[in-house]
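Annual report, structural modelling task.

Input specification for the nickel (II) ion complex:
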Amino acid sequence: MIFDTHAHYDDKAFDADRETVLRSARESGVGLILDPGCDVESSRAALRLAEGHEFVYAAVGIHPEELDCWGEEALAELRELAEHPKCVAIGEIGLDYYWDDSRKQEQKLLFRWQLELALELDKPVIVHDREAHGDCMDIVRDYPALRGVFHCYSGSAEMAKELLKRGWYLGFDGPVTYKNARKTLEVLELCPLERILIETDSPYMSPVPMRGKRNDSRNLRFVADKLAACKGVTPEEIERVTMENGCRLFGIARPE
Ligand code: NI
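The model returned the following structure:
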């Protein structure tokens, strides 16, 4: 049984067949799914999905690309949603200088506010870091008690070593199956098995051979296969250990 620790089933890409996809993912051996929110609205939607499905959990947070939606009211609501029993993390939060680097200060402020919320509620965080490695590290260093995952890890090997030393997990997604994955595979090599999470980031980032199509948790096995080949273990071992890792980090009981 496999744990997809990052899949946006609240996304409108699944409006037409969400229940069918979830059911078939479940039937194909997906034991757990974590759906992280990107703003207040999608955090609420993720929690609704989690309420309706025993094997779905949610994280709540405001993504750095959703800067326009935050203010006092949004943060108050987020805090309230974070107390929901099926909210297991704060995410997805972080910095993204790829799409827009004109509001870095605001991104950092929002990131810090949510990291502090995570500490206050004693929850792990799911970090989105795109082209913002240095600033993400600077901020994370300010909160040594914080734990979480750098989702779809894209930083350097050096940065990975520091994160691992600080107790963080690294998330690997479809891009490990792409031709230009060399840097990520180097990181994978140095990352101990017990700190690896596997994710689809559905509906985005479909692995080879599904690249270009809408992604869903059934494709997670392609990521697991690639990781197994790189680490010299069986895909079953990757499934088992990443399930254990996800349950440990997010405080979820392992499914039978
Ligand atoms: Ni995501």
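The beta strands are 2-4, 30-36, 56-60, 87-96, 125-130, 148-150, 169-172, 196-198.
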